Amino acid sequence: MGLNTLSISKNADDIKLNSLTNVCDYIEALDIVMTEMVELNDKYPDEIKFIIGSVAVGDIVIHNEHTERFEVLQDRFEEIGQAAFKKYTIAEFKECSNYEAFSEKRARLKTKN
Questions:
Q1: In this structure, is the dihedral angle defined by the CA atoms of residues 7, 91, 75 and 49, taken in order, positive or negative?
Q2: pLDDT digits over 91-113, tens only?
Q3: Could you read off the pLDDT of 48-60 as tens digits, one per residue?
Q4: In a domain, 8, yes or no
Q5: Is 4 among the domain residues?
Q6: Is residue 32 part of a domain?
Q7: Domain housing 75
Q8: Rounded to whole angstroms, how far apart are CA atoms 59 and 20?
Q9: What is the mean pLDDT of the chain?
């Protein structure tokens, strides 16, 4: 599917589900959220450890501005992802020009901690 057409803010908080009009818009939106998650994880690795479905720090969960932001981003990622899967298949996602970069970033974050 060529170039993405979404012209949204590069901030996860500004993404509006109703502005996502095609499969590549959803991938771009997910990538924006994932980028913020990766940046937080890279900047505060001792505070944030990404485990699919949870935010954990060592043996206890610590709530501070970084972990709280990460949780917000994780919820946003889930919200956008659920909406995307209601409309599209993985095969359709893979047709987007930015899918591979998004997928690599997601895999890096999953295996980092």
A1: negative
A2: 999 999 999 988 988 887 765 54
A3: 654 434 444 444 4
A4: no
A5: no
A6: yes
A7: 21-112
A8: 38
A9: 79
